[in-house]
Request: fold
Amino acid sequence: MKNHFLKKGLFYWAALLLLLSGAAWAAGGMDFSQSPEVSGTREDAVRMPKQQERMALNYVNQPPMIPHSVDGYQINTNTNRCLQCHGVEHYRATGAPRISPTHFIDSEGKVLAGVAPRRYFCLQCHVPQTDASPIVDNTFTPSKGFGQ
Reply:
C-alpha cells in the first residue's frame, strides 16, 4: 500500500516537473524570425493594407483570401476573432461576407448548428492578401475564366 502511494506521488511530481520545464522553455521563447520560412521576405517589402479589393480566385473551390490584416487576431479553442464579423449572427451588421454554409458540415457529412471543428481555424486555409513577390518562382496559371 505504501509503495503504491510512493509511486503515485513520484508520478505526479515528475508530471509537474515536465509541465513546468515545458512552460519555462516556451516562456524563454525561440526566435523564429531567423528561420528561413519567416525571414524569406523583409517586412518593409510586404504591403498589407487595412482594407483592399478582394482578389479574384484562381481555381475552383479556392478559399477566398483575406483582404485585411489579421495581426493580433485570436483564434483558439475558446474564441475565434474572425467569427465576430463573419459569423451568421454578425455579418449583416458588420458588412463582412458571411461564413460559407460548407463550414457547418462535419467530416461525416452531418450539418451542425455551429462551425465544424475541422473548419474552425480559419487561417489554415484563408490567408491575408499581399503584393509580396513570390519567394520561389513558379509557372502557375489560373484556370480558364479565373484570376480576372
In short: The longest helix spans residues 2-28. Confidence is low (pLDDT under 50) at residues 32-50.
